[in-house]
């Protein structure tokens, strides 16, 4: 069986990877209790002992707000640790998969979909450290695969760290437990984590480099939430069946109604829409 080290094995992604691949890989799971990543000697010893063929580095300070207020800690964990880990992997000849983040694009003025080589100037500490870490990782370990993960979620699973994210927010809101507020100017490929976990074996075979990794999403977060609330069975508009039953008037749906308005406008203006 392939010898695999998973860092952050007590975390949201690392825990799910460890559980999913436990019968397929010979896994050394390194959670925070087992290994303090900023202890470089301990990191070296753990990797020497495990002699991995593959290292999946999910451990990080993943809370952007915390990183913003603790930049030195973020520097040590999110930048120095993966840089050291990459050197260890290069020395061992182990393939490294490093979890970066779509936060590297935060602050980019260019409109998407953004390619991996788009010019970057991350505005937050977390994004900056992830971006710099990618560069340090690839400098010493060119075969490393850096995955720029988008915002991920999953439903609760027994024994695994919870991170229900977008899914949880919509469900709580539907249950009437909280008001919903979603950004109109944010475009993110919000992603269910399960297909990411299942694709990891395949992604670990990628040639070294940086890869955007997440669901594609042309909608802003507000529009995405509306679509997903619809899937959850939310009825967001008025029920007009009484009007229809009462007098047969059917005013159609909003987009159809907009299209009809547009046709009428074009007729009046002679096709000059703008
Ligand atoms: N989840 C997302 O939506 C998302 C999106 C983009 C990128 N990412 C990236 O994907 C990776 C996995 O994310 P995740 O959601 O699984 O994060 P997570 O649940 O916060 O897991 C990260 C793990 O790293 C551990 N850790 C933190 N500092 C450490 C240290 N100094 N030494 C050893 N272990 C340490 C944490 O342990 P303790 O909690 O016990 O300290 C935690 O279990 C991270 O690199 C994250 O930045 C995640």
Structure explained in plain terms:
With 274 residues, the chain is α/β, with parallel strands linked by helices. It has helices spanning 12-20, 40-50, 64-69, 71-92, 125-140, 165-174, 193-203, 221-231, 241-247, 254-269, and strands at residues 2-7, 25-30, 54-57, 95-101, 145-149, 152-153, 191-192, 209-213. The protein folds into two domains: 2-163 and 183-217, NAD(P)-binding Rossmann-like Domain (Rossmann fold, 3-Layer(aba) Sandwich), CATH 3.40.50.720; 238-269, no CATH class. It contains ten helices and eight strands. The strands form two sheets. A six-stranded parallel β-sheet has the order 2-1-3-4-5-8, with helices on both faces. β4, α5 (125-140) and β5 form a beta-alpha-beta unit. The chain is elongated, with a radius of gyration of 23 Å. The model has no long low-confidence stretch (mean pLDDT 93).
Compact overview of the structure:
The chain has helices spanning 12-20, 40-50, 64-69, 71-92, 125-140, 165-174, 193-203, 221-231, 241-247, 254-269, and strands spanning 2-7, 25-30, 54-57, 95-101, 145-149, 152-153, 191-192, 209-213. The chain has 274 residues and is α/β, with parallel strands linked by helices.
Name given to the CATH architecture of the largest domain: 3-Layer(aba) Sandwich
Q: Write down the CATH topology of the largest domain.
A: Rossmann fold
Query: N-to-C terminal Cα separation, in Å?
Result: 63 Å
Tally of strands: 8
Number of helices: 10
Beta content: 5-15%
Q: Major sheet, described briefly? A: 6 strands, parallel
What is the CATH superfamily of the largest domain? NAD(P)-binding Rossmann-like Domain
Structural class by sheet pairing and helices = alpha/beta
**What's the pLDDT, averaged over the residues?**
93
Tell me the Rg in angstroms. Answer: 23 Å
């Amino acid at each position: 069986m392939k010898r695999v080290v998973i860092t952050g094995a007590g975390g949201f992604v690392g825990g799910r990877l460890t559980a999913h691949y436990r019968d397929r890989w010979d896994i050394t799971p390194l959670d925070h209790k087992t290994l303090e990543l900023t202890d470089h000697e301990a990191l070296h010893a753990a990797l020497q002992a495990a002699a991995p063929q593959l290292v999946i580095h999910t451990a990080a300070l993943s809370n952007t707000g915390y990183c913003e207020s603790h930049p030195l800690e973020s520097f040590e964990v999110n930048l120095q640790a993966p840089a050291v880990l990459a050197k260890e992997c290069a020395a061992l000849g182990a393939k490294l998969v490093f979890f970066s983040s779509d936060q590297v694009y935060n602050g980019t003025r260019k409109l998407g979909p953004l390619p991996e080589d788009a010019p970057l100037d991350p505005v937050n500490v977390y994004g900056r450290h992830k971006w710099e870490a990618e560069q340090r990782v690839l400098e010493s370990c060119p075969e490393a695969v850096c995955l720029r993960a988008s915002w991920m979620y999953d439903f609760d699973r027994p024994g695994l760290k919870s991170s229900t994210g977008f899914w949880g927010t919509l469900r709580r809101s539907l249950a009437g437990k909280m008001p919903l507020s979603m950004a109109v100017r944010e475009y993110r490929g919000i992603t269910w984590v399960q297909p990411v976990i299942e694709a990891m074996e395949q992604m670990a075979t990628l040639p070294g480099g940086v890869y955007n990794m997440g669901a594609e999403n042309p909608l802003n977060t507000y529009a995405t939430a509306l679509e997903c609330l619809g899937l959850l069975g939310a009825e967001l508009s008025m029920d007009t069946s009484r009007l229809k039953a009462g007098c047969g008037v059917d005013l159609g749906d909003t987009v159809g109604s907009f299209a009809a308005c547009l046709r009428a406008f074009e007729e009046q203006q002679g096709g000059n829409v703008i």
